[in-house]
Structures are given as C-alpha cells and as structure tokens.
Amino acid sequence: MGINDEIKTIKGIGTKKAIALEKLGIKTKEDLINYYPRDYEDRSNIKNINNINNGETALLKGKVTSISKTNNRNKRKKQILKLLIEDNTGSIEIVFFNANYLEKVLLKNYEYEFFGKVNILNGKKSMLHPDISKIKEEENLNILPVYALTKGITQKDLRKWQKIVISELNDLEEYLPYSIIERNRLCDIKYAIKNIHFPENKQKLKESKYRLIFDELFLLQLGLLSIRNKNKIDGKGICFSKKVEMQSFTNNLSYNLTKAQTRVIEEINKDMESQKIMNRLVQGDVGSGKTVIAEAAIYKAVKSGYQAVMMAPTEILARQHYENLQKDFDEYNISVGFLASSIKIKEKKEILNDLEMGKIDLLIGTHAIIQPYVKFFNLGLVITDEQHRFGVNQRNLLSDKGKNPDIIVMTATPIPRTLAIILYGDLDISLIDEMPPGRKEIITKEINSKGRKAAYGFLNTEIKKGRQVYVVAPLIDESDSINARSAVSIYEDLKNIFKEYKINLLHGAMKQSEKDTVMEQFNAGEINILVSTVVIEVGINVPNATIMVIENSERFGLSQLHQLRGRVGRGSYQSYCILVNQSNSDIAKKRAQIMTSTNDGFIIAEKDLELRGPGEFFGIKQHGVPELKIADLAKHIKILNTTKKEVNLLLEKDKFLIDENNKKIKEKIIMTFKNIDNINI
Ligand code: ADP
Ligand code: MG
C-alpha cells in the first residue's frame, strides 16, 4: 500500500464514491490527505442548555432522563427515538429517526455529550441527529475537521477515510531539505498532515498550518523559477548598439518625458546594451505613459538591426497601438506590420512573408502572433502590453521566436508586491510612479438609480462643453437570469434622452470592422456618448473623453473598475467617474468606498487582493499557477518573503535541481505543476 494508490483501494470507496471524490480533485490517497479542511468544529466548549440559541451548532453535556420510542406506520415504518437530556440549567429533546442501534447504546441516567444544531420552536429546544460523544469514533478529539463536500460524499465519509489514510502514513516522505526545516523550525510533514486533519490541540494545528503554508508558497515559487531557469539556459542575450541613442527618438516628442519615464528608459537602455537577457516588468498606473517607453526600446532595437514585436490582449488595443506607432515611426523609416486573427488570409500571407524576409521591423498584434507559423527574420525585442492577461507559456512562446530576445512586459494594472514576487519572480521591475504633468485627479462618485437623472444632467453640461462620455454596462443583451442593465437597453434609453447627441454602441460580439469604425469615430470626436461593454477596458486612449459612467458597478472587481476609470483623465481636462451601484452588499459598498477615496492603483490592487483573494485576482489560473489550497497571499506576506529567500538560496547552489539531495523536492514540484503543459524542469 502506498500513498500514490488510487482512492478506490480504501475500504468502502466504490466506483460511485470515487467519481464523486474526483470532483473534489481527489484521485489518490495523496490527493486525499492534501484535501485540507475548510474549517474546524471546536468541541472543547460545552454550553449550558439554557444558554443556547436557535440555529447555533453547540456542544451540550447532560444526563438522559427519559427515553421514548414511537413507530410511525404511515411513513414506511419510520421509527422515532426521543431522549430528554438535562444539565444543571435546563433540558432539551434529542430526536433520532430509524436509529434502532442507539437504543442499546444510550442508557437512562447516564451522561453523554451531544454536538449538533439547536432548534428552538415556541420555547421548546430540540436537536436532530447530533453526534454523541460516548459512541462517536473521534474519541478524545475536541477539534474536528470540516471539509468542503460534494454530492454523494458526507462529512463522516471524509473524516473516516482521512483517518484510514493517515494511520498508514509511513511512506509519506519528507521532501524538504533538512537545512530548510531546521532554519525555519518547521514540523515534519507527517506531523503536519496528521494535525491539519485531526489536531490534538490548537497549538499543533497552528504549527501544522504554518508548515503547509510554507510548503505551498515554497513549492510555488521554486516551481515557477525552475521553469524559467530551464528556459534561460543558453543565457547570452543581444547587445544592442551603443551608437543608437534613444534620445534621438524621445527628443522629438511633443512633450517632455517625466522623471519616472526618463529613469525607466535609462534602465531599459542599460539592459539592452548589456549582454544579459533583459527580463523587465514595467509597472505604471493607467495613463502614466508606458507606450512611449516601449517605443524608445523598439527604436533602439530596430536601429540596431533587429526586429521587434509587441503583443496586446485585445484587437482594439492592438490596433490602437498599431495606428499610433505607425504614425510615430513614420519619419524614422521603421516599417510596422499588424497581425490579428481577423486579418484576411491573403493579406496575412503577405505580412508573414514580409516578416520572415525582414521587411517588417515591428510587428504589432494580438495573441495571433504566437502561432507557430509566425516567423521572424531576427527578432530581438519582445514587448507584451497588459501582461497580466497572458500566461507564462504565452510569454515563453513569443520569445522562442527569436534567439534570446530582450523582454519587456508592461502592465497597467498595478500588481500587489506579493503577487509580483510570485508571478514575476524572475523579472526586474521598473516603476513609473509619476503621472505626466497637468493631469487632474479623477473625481469619483457613487450613485444609485435615483441619482441617474442628476448624473444625466451633468453629462449634458460636459457634452455641451465639447467633452465625450463612456457608459459601460456589464452585459450586451438583457438577460432574464441576471438582474443587470445591458448595453443595448442603456443605449436605447440614452438615445431617447439625448436626442440631439450622437450615441453609439460597442460590444464584443460586433464585427471587427464595425468596432473599428466606432472607435475611429469616437477618437475623432464624432461620437458624444459611447455605450459599451468591457471591451473598452484596457489601454484605449481618448484624451477628450472625460466621463466614465459604470452601470451596475457592483458587478465589477476593483481592479477592473480602476482600469475602466483609467479610460478618462487622459488629457488636461478635469475628469469624472460615476459608479451606478445597484447593490447593498457589503463588498459592493466597500469597493465603491475605496474607489471614491483613492486614485492610486497600487492601493486599489492591494485592496482587491484582500477582498477577492488571489484565486480570482487577474485569473491566476490563466497563468498556469497551481491553485493555492491553504496559503493566502493577502495574509501570508511574511511567510512568502521567507520562502522566497529559501528558494533563492536553494537555486543559487543548485540552479537546475540536479543535486541528489534535491531529488525529492524536484519530484514534488513536478507533481505540483503537473497541470501546466510544457512543464519541463
Ligand atoms: P499607459 O501608461 O496607460 O499606457 P499611454 O502610454 O497610453 O499610457 O499614455 C497616455 C497619454 O499620455 C498618451 O496620450 C501619451 O501621449 C501621453 N503622455 C505620455 N507621456 C507623457 C508626458 N511625459 N507628458 C505628457 N503627456 C504624456
Ligand atoms: Mg497602455
């Protein structure tokens, strides 16, 4: 018998139960013991019977003062067993159905402990099917695990099976190197597993939790770094020409760079001239001016004789970059190509051919760029915009198209420090912590439906001044099941209210050419109000647009709200964001409160991580990062930093984990990351 045995080898688990368990991600015994409780029932606290409330789950201790049995013939011989229990303070009735066996176990005038849900009806207290201490299996245990369940699996089942597997834990091997256990005073893995499920006391539970959180964060970081190290073996990068100065490009801009932009450009320039492969994350809030930084780097790469590529997550954004960069590079004789899945075959062939021949210097596009048939002549620089939308593998696929090209990833959504450590552990980080001059803070207001009329009045004043307005809705069409306004119905409403204005609709289901036309018109100031779904979310830049109305703002996460708000305030005009919050839920209120009180993307990102948890944050799953079972990135920053140090220490000594001492940890990582394709540590 071994830890890798299929779950079916446990007595009592047949095909049906096995299928149900698989829904919980449990296929082997090892999966089972790594299925941690979501909570615990603390039975150390015995309550007085006169002190319990309706609906609470309580532990009671009392003497059986009467036992009665009735057989109910109507309902298929249902037998009802009723006990009256008394303690010093009061009495309660305990009820069991069809529990013949209990008659022999529960004796009058003896004391027992009962654990269950209290029901109080017209002052009469009762408890249905409680656990009874004297006969329960979990003897002497005060803290019991509570697992997340699925149909066909009960709490009792899981507790029983966990017990069985834990009792035969002998072949669960320690995988952490001894030095790490020692330095961090970790308990050993068997102890941790045993006590995470059936803690003997709170202290042991705490030690076990710490160990398992440590493991999870350690393995996560070690795994990600190992994958990247593997991809970086042939470590010599390109030295771009020192003779090509980025200033030749930036000095001709119509504005002066901010100090932050100048610093970041200098950091990039240094990396590009050196032989090391640049791997740099440029973090800057919306509107901080990242595009020009990308342009300076592209200028350097192309004028040094290499090709560059820039990938954006949506076609609208990619097209916007394409149009702007084509204009900006026109006088420098840099040829720019565009690629997206919507491009017609004939045109596509031409582009691909030019690219491979080296006739295109810069390719801009969506993820269509990572298709295998896209080949470059000599790719030297890879830029991804709004990086958090792309996975680890997509990033690697793109850089594989060149020979160790330099890499810049740009993100407009600030990433909390903790997540950056994990997602971009190997990246150097450049921070644009300054906005171009003349920008005014966006004023944000929260309203509900009642405030809409006043808000429309305000829109009217702004439009009269020549400004433009975005209205964003969570849905395209009205849907019966979801109580939210759709872009289409808002569009119809607004057309009635603002008859004299030009109003257009933009959503993801429209044809690309239609979307383009609408965006072009909005850009040119020909549309007063643009009603859209979140397709507008990233990157779009129309400085004359000053109002962002977000309908059903409660349906959006904080980072998304911040992104949407970032579509305005991009010029010198005072800009506004109006959140139409239709919900009274705590989280919706909290989000609105955060949005109205700060414009700082980093604060918002940290809050977002706290409120939503890392699972949903930027879709961690998309990154190919295994799900966290016990660690919480918002809470366990300290442990995260500790594990980061340990990971670095380990990799410094044994970069590719080939040392015999690290064999077990390597196997463990491969198991942990088994769901990532291309894993090849
Ligand atoms: P983001 O960081 O969100 O990608 P962009 O690069 O789109 O921001 O820049 C937003 C706007 O600010 C653009 O219109 C750009 O031309 C302008 N801009 C960038 N840097 C400066 C600067 N230093 N001074 C004035 N305007 C700037
Ligand atoms: Mg941008």
Structural account:
This protein is an alpha/beta fold and 681 residues long. The chain has 4 domains: 7-39 and 160-198, no CATH class; 44-140, OB fold (Dihydrolipoamide Acetyltransferase, E2P), CATH 2.40.50.140; 247-432, 3-Layer(aba) Sandwich (Rossmann fold), CATH 3.40.50; 443-598, Rossmann fold (3-Layer(aba) Sandwich). Helices cover 36% and strands 19% of the residues. It is built from 22 helices and 22 strands. The strands form 4 sheets. Strands 12-13-11-14-15-10-16 form a 7-stranded parallel beta sheet, sandwiched between helices. Strands 17-22-21-18-20-19 form a 6-stranded parallel beta sheet, sandwiched between helices. Strands 3-4-5-7-6 form a 5-stranded mixed β-barrel. The longest helix is centred in the first third of the chain and has 29 residues, at 202-230. The protein starts with 14 loop residues before the first helix and ends in a 9-residue tail after the last helix. Mean pLDDT is 86; it is low at 617-622 and 677-681. Residues 255, 257-258, 261, 284, 286-292, 412, 436, 541, 543, 570 line the site of adenosine-5'-diphosphate. Residues 290-291, 385, 412, 539 line the site of magnesium ion (MG).
Q: What would you give as the CATH superfamily of the largest domain? A: P-loop containing nucleotide triphosphate hydrolases
Number of domains: 4
Instruction: Please indicate the percent range of residues in DSSP E strands (runs of 2 or more).
Output: 15-25%
User: How many beta-strand segments?
Assistant: 22
Describe the strand arrangement of the main beta sheet, using strand numbers: 12-13-11-14-15-10-16
* Unreliable segments of 5+ consecutive residues: 617-622, 677-681
Globally, the shape reads globular
Q: What is the CATH class designation of the largest domain?
A: Alpha Beta
Average pLDDT taken over every residue: 86
Q: If classified by CATH, what would the architecture of the largest domain be?
A: 3-Layer(aba) Sandwich
CATH topology title of the largest domain: Rossmann fold
DSSP summary: helix tally: 22
Q: Approximately how much helix is present in the residues?
A: 25-40%
* Structure classification: alpha/beta
Mind describing the biggest β-sheet?
7 strands, parallel
